[in-house]
Design brief:
116 residues, 19% strand, 5 helices
Length: 116
């Protein structure tokens, strides 16, 4: 699924670095527990989370993720935005809740973190 398709599906707003909307994202995970993300998610994936602190960017960087999307209309803190810009990470925000965001993406064919 391309970044453009993800943005459209989630009716998301680009917060940081959304210029390459043809970037392909192969899987996604919804979690507010960054330890789960580090132990389960494969590289170049999308993280859906409500955690808007810099920890979400640090986790994404360590897990080699491509995109973080904040759910429930949450907006990242200024420090989070600065870190994402420095590291070239894409940040999005959607007003949708986590459950609905994951469901919409799954219905469109985006794999989850447990699928091969």
């Amino acid at each position: 699924m391309t970044l453009r398709e993800i943005i459209e599906t989630l009716q998301a707003t680009i917060m940081v670095n959304g210029h390459d909307q043809e970037m392909v994202v192969e899987r996604a995970c919804g979690s507010d527990l960054m330890s789960d993300v580090l132990s389960r998610l494969k590289p170049h994936a999308l993280l859906l989370t409500g955690l808007v602190t810099p920890q979400s960017v640090y986790t994404a960087e360590m897990a080699d993720l491509s995109v973080v999307c904040y759910v429930r209309g949450k907006k990242p803190e200024a420090e989070t935005v600065r870190l994402a810009e420095e590291r070239g990470l894409v940040l999005l925000s959607t007003t949708l809740p986590m459950y609905e965001s994951c469901g919409r993406l799954y219905r469109k064919g985006l794999k989850g973190d447990s699928e091969t």
